[in-house]
Amino acid sequence: MSALRLPYVYRVPLCVPFWNWRTYAALARCIGRGEIVGGSDVQRLEQRLAALFSTASSVACNSGRAALELALRANGVGAGDEVVVPTFCCASIISPILALGAMPVLCDVGEHLTLTPATIEAAVTSRTRGVVVAHLFGNPAPIDTIEEFCRRRGLILIDDAAQALGAKLNGRLLGTFGDAGIVSFGSGKVCFGVGGGVLVSRQGAVMERARAARFPRAEAAPTLKRAAGVTVWRRWRHWSLPLQIVLSRIGKPAQGASYQGRAMANLDAAVASSLLDTLDDNLAARRARVDAYRTLLGQGPGCSLLPHGEGSACLAQLVSFSGGEQVALAVVRALREAGYEVDRSYQPLHLQAAYDKYARGALPNADRLWPALVELPCEPTVRMEDAKRIAEVVRTTGHAG
Fold first, then answer.
1. Considering just the CA atoms, what is the radius of gyration of the chain in Å?
2. Which residue pairs, CB below 8 angstroms and at least 24 apart, start in 24-33?
3. Which of 121, 162, 255, 313 has its CA 20 to 30 A from that of 169?
4. Nearest CA to 175 among 378, 313, 15, 19?
5. Is-same-fold flag (21-212; 279-400)?
6. Reading across the β-sheet that carries 316-321, which strands appear in turn?
């Protein structure tokens, strides 16, 4: 993709968290009282999520990755086991599996970019122990039928609702299917906080093993550094992006910390709780923006919208262009020049050098679908007039392609 032109200050920056004064108050309270790591907010968050998901308890970790590792560990996944995961997914799904000495197996996706019983069947071997179903972009995968498939095959099923907090399938909350579920308050999620992930399960034995395998205590300095980074570089991105670009050009870009599972810090839990207070408004706003894109773009010539199922959390709206990758690139350029910091979607993991070894054979659906995709923002911070302008640029550029 070509380098950014002007403006560096976008009308709509990429992926801005939906915070209000209560979130800043939670940050200030924890810092002012010195309750960065220790405090009562973690227990309160665990109780709230246990009530939300109708479980006896939940276990809070420092990230969604840590919650996934704990979910797999509590279900007996270990060295030598294979775990099926979607190739069309965030790369963070890989490290928790490797941390257990298990082997991730990349699986193709269906037309809606999620796992299906048919694509999972093609990836299962005698060494397969479990399946992780991710509900990408808040859109429910067919996890009810996948649950039946896994039950018949004796496979562990992890319901990865990291991108789908509050979403439902047939009236049932995502995260409650299978043997365990996870949610996340990390970067780019529905409730984008300063970090944290939570394991939930309705199986008492699983939760007992999870509590027994809790991670070490969080550390104050990394917690504060992460919170400051999210606040400055993400929440205030409208103003901080120019500085970030300048810093990246005069020095080596900062490297992300390597994965290490820990318990959730009190500061993370306090912020997460403040975001749960606005979850209903958050979801309603995202669904309204998806409805607007559907009305404004429809399924006209040149582009089509990835449909969101009823109950979707509507994290983002994907658009596919019949002209393929070149049109998708042109749409991204046009939107950025108009002041909207959008981007293309995930490159499938099997097409990345770091992860291609985890694929077995061709994954044709992901190969075919991903090059033509662009993600349109649905955050509540995106004004409806901007959603209309985004749709206009997409329609003009995409149809021209």
1. 20
2. 25/274, 26/270, 26/271, 26/273, 26/274, 27/194, 27/227, 27/231, 27/267, 27/270, 27/271, 29/270, 30/266, 30/267, 30/270, 31/224, 31/267
3. 121
4. 313
5. no
6. 303-305, 316-321, 373-377, 343-344
Rounded Cα distance, 376 and 286, in Å: 11
Residues 314 and 289: beta-carbon distance below 8 Å: yes
Going by C-alpha positions, the residue among 28, 31, 25, 67 that lies closest to residue 46 is 67
Name, in order, each residue with C-beta under 8 angstroms of 189's C-beta and a sequence gap of 6 or more. 64, 162, 163, 165, 315
Among 146, 170, 179, 174, CA closest to 162: 174
CB contact at 8 A, 197 and 265: no
Domain-wise residue ranges, the chain: 21-212, 279-400
Q: Is 368 helix (H, G, I), strand (E, B) or coil?
A: helix
pTM over 0.90: yes
Over residues 104-118, the pLDDT tens digits come to 999 999 999 999 999
CA dihedral 216, 180, 211, 101 (to 10 degrees): -50
CA-based nearest residue to 223, from 170, 173, 183, 260: 260
Q: Are 133 and 160 in contact (CB under 8 A)?
A: yes
Whether 68 and 182 have beta carbons less than 8 Å apart is answered as yes
> Six-digit token pair at 345?
């979607």
Cα(7)–Cα(14) distance, integer angstroms: 14
pLDDT digits (tens, 9 = 90+) for 214-246: 899 999 999 999 999 999 999 999 888 888 877
Give me the CATH topology for the region 21-212: Aspartate Aminotransferase; domain 2 (3.40.640)
Q: Which of 327, 289, 276, 355 has its CA nearest to residue 98?
A: 355
Coil, strand or helix at 100? coil
Give the integer Cα–Cα distance in Å for 135 and 200.
Answer: 16
Residue 309: both structure tokens together = 């199922």
Say whether domain 279-400 belongs to CATH 3.90.1150.10: yes
- pLDDT under 50 in the chain at which residues? 1-7
Q: What is the pLDDT of residue 105?
A: 98
Tokens for 322, please give them. Answer: 């019949």
8-state DSSP, 56: S
Give bridge partners of residue 320 from the DSSP assignment: 304, 373
